[in-house]
Amino acid sequence: MLGHMPAWSCLTCANQHADTPDPPATCAICTDERQWVPPSGQRWGTISELSSMGHRSDVRSVEPDLLGVGATPNVAIGQRALVVQTYAGNVMWDAPGFIDDDAVSAVRNIGGLTAISASHPHFYGTIVEWAHAFNATILIPEADQQWLMRPDPAVRLWEGRQEVVPGVTLVQCGGHFDGSAVLHWADGAGGRGALFPGPGTLSGGVPTGTSNGSRVRHSSIDDAAPAGSFTRG
């Protein structure tokens, strides 16, 4: 699955960068004031190297029709993806910083992926690898397109409000980044509706991938959010 030239992953934030013979001099995500560079300096690796260091996928059911995908031990900031399963296609939210064949097989067993998006650029991670594995669309807010360190033809830009598949909607609400967004799953939480925020998007929100007994915050979305558009990246 990962037979093409490996992309470089920042070992601090886990964001992959464009395929190049040598790693970049810096990671723009980490040198930005909203992230950090460790005192030891910028470090780089590949997915294969992370596997050889003992990292493995960690896939577990969160609730009916919701799958969590992460890594053990944690990679970089330790984010965990959530895969919403619907009759119209599955949507991955907040890509993890790691991918392997076991994780891909687990997601394939529930129907694969139609689209992938994220709350903000710190959680772009291996988003391109996952898109390649399933020929999925990557949805990136137009306001944050410069923060995707690994450009790819699978990217589609959106703004405002975007229905990904019926019953699953992205809403750009701003916050940590101009394009910071939440994902609303109308059928989640037993039909009550589930809202997936990210750090800095909602006051008191629970960041995706952390645990306080649940990785999902149940709420509703303000219908006043503007309609979005769908353009090629």
What is the H level of CATH, i.e. the homologous superfamily of the domain at 56-217?
A: Ribonuclease Z/Hydroxyacylglutathione hydrolase-like
The average pLDDT score comes to: 80
Topology order in helix (H) and strand (E) letters = EHEHEEEEHEHEEEEEEE
Distance between the termini: 24 Å
Low-confidence stretches: 203-233
CATH architecture field of the domain at 56-217: 4-Layer Sandwich
Determine the fraction of residues in helical runs and give it as a percent range.
Answer: 10-25%
Radius of gyration, in Å, reads 16 Å
Explain this structure.
The chain has 233 residues and is α+β, with helices and mostly antiparallel strands. The chain has a domain at 56-217: Ribonuclease Z/Hydroxyacylglutathione hydrolase-like (Metallo-beta-lactamase, Chain A, 4-Layer Sandwich), CATH 3.60.15. The protein has four helices and 14 strands. The protein has helices spanning 28-31, 47-52, 101-108, 127-134; strands spanning 9-10, 44-45, 56-63, 66-72, 81-84, 91-93, 115-117, 137-141, 155-158, 161-165, 168-172, 181-185, 194-196, 230-232. The strands form three sheets. It has an eight-stranded mixed β-sheet, covered by helices on one side. The protein has a four-stranded antiparallel β-sheet with strand order 10-11-12-13, with no helix packed on it. The model is unreliable at 203-233 (pLDDT under 50).
